[in-house]
Amino acid sequence: MTTQRVHNFSAGPAMLPLPVLEEAQRDLVSLPGVGMSVLEISHRSKAFAAIIESAQADLRKLLAIPDGYHLLFLQGGATLQFAMVAMNLGRDGRADYIDTGSWAKAAMKEAQKFTKVQTAASTQADNYNRVPRQSELKLDSGATYVHYTTNETIGGVEWHEYPEVGAVPLICDSSSDFLSKPFDIGRHAVVYAGAQKNVGPAGVTVVILRDDMLKRVPAGLPVLLDYKAMVEGKSLYNTPPVFPIYVVGLVAKWLLGLGGLAEMHARNQAKARLVYDALDSSGGYYRGHAQPGSRSNMNVTWRMGSEALETLFVKEATAAGLDGLKGHRSVGGLRASIYNAFPEAGVKALVDFMKEFQKKHG
Ligand SMILES: *Cc1c(COP(=O)(O)O)cnc(C)c1O
Questions:
Q1: Residue nearest (by alpha carbon) to ligand 1 atom 14
Q2: For residue 362, what are the CA distances in angstroms to 7, 115, 201, 351?
Q3: In what order do the strands lie in the sheet with 287-288?
Q4: pLDDT tens digits, residue range 203-242?
Q5: Does pLDDT of 293 surpass 70?
Q6: Is 144 in the pocket of ligand 1 (CB under 6 A)?
């Protein structure tokens, strides 16, 4: 058996399913039937072709990706997609961005280098504790696209409905709730997600792209920043991140095995409810950040009476085997990241700890 594992609440890189880690470990030295490690095989080999093709097929099945969409494995993280979206699809135009917090802002900052960025809505005045209502969106029907962030990993707010944007292509950064629930790809022109939150190890980014978007790609982009070249090269223009793609494939198989995204969603909702119930029943000792309608099922964020108390909470939680609960440095407070792979038993351990802590210090 592996060494003792703590409850890992890290926001990313985050927990992977234990069966996935165990399979990767078991096969690390030699892939069955191949006689070489996945770390050693050529990306042009038959063995790797089988790995990447089955990862793509399983993701397509999980998400029911409609025909007419490309599925790419790229590098550079979601951060590079912030720029690539604007470089490839936003040239000579103006793009609408919905500002829901740190990651939306980061996307806007990068995009500004290549296109005119308009703020279609912002919840900054509410300290980013919710996503905007449909009626608050000031959309430009002449925009090249609308960009939003499905789950704000730092603030802990998540969209539970899709924004309605008419005929303008809808693009989302889905890095931290990708594969956590059924998701309507067909409403979107581009969906991208860095793997290391919910889908695999750091080093690969999943990009799902509707075919008509390729017509917009301007000539002369550096090849690795060019969606058209990446589609034509089938994510194998140059050496792809072989190992992360392999692990993403294992995670996709794991999800299919447990019943797919509807089942995963039910489990995630049940886990998140336990933590939100603990916040809500604490009499204000723990104060949830997100407004109820925008609460994230992936990243639960809350504050306590003082920073000193929050620091003590993190210290005692860590000692009790609950790791990674400190909020992001930009917002402070506490954050429990409970992605797909995070087990319900760990959530229960957190809730028990919260009750004990309040009894002791409250
Ligand atoms: C982590 C994160 C990013 C940045 O991802 P990188 O892969 O580190 O570039 C972007 N958007 C969201 C929503 C994230 O959670």
A1: 175
A2: 24, 51, 39, 15
A3: 287-288, 299-303, 334-337
A4: 999 999 999 999 999 999 999 999 999 999 999 999 999 9
A5: yes
A6: no
- In this predicted structure, the answer to whether residue 2 has a pLDDT above a threshold of 60 is no
To 10 degrees, what angle do helices 242-257 and 18-26 make?
130
**197 flagged as catalytic:** yes
Ligand 1 atom closest to the CA of 149, numbered from 1: 13
What's the confidence (pLDDT) of residue 31? 96
Whose CA is closest to 16, among 250, 333, 360, 268? 250
Residue having the nearest C-alpha atom to atom 5 of ligand 1: 78
Query: Is 173 known to be catalytic?
Result: yes
Asked if 298 and 260 count as a contact pair (C-beta separation under 8 A), the reply is no
In sequence order, what are the beta bridge partners of 148? 172
Question: What angle is formed at CA 305 by the lines to CA 320 and CA 157, rounded to 5 degrees?
Answer: 80
CA of 84 to the centre of ligand 1 (A): 14
Q: Does the C-beta of 153 come closer than 6 Å to ligand 1? A: yes
pLDDT for position 285? 98
- DSSP H or E stretch at residue 8: strand 7-8
Residue 181 DSSP symbol: S
Give me the architecture of the 260-361 domain, per CATH: Alpha-Beta Complex (3.90)
Span 94-115, average pLDDT: 98
| Domain spans, the chain | 19-258, 260-361
Which tens digits make up the pLDDT trace of 336-352?
999 999 999 999 999 99
Fold entry, domain 19-258: Aspartate Aminotransferase; domain 2 (3.40.640)
Dist. CA 15–CA 341, nearest whole Å: 6
What is the spatial distance between Cα 264 and Cα 255, in angstroms, rounded to a whole number? 7
Residue 139 has pLDDT above 70, yes or no: yes
What would the 3-class secondary structure string for 201-212 be?
Answer: CCCCEEEEEEHH
Give, for ligand 1, the residue of 176, 191, 205, 207 to mutate: max count of ligand atoms closer than 8 Å to Cβ: 176
Give the type of residue at 328.
Answer: H
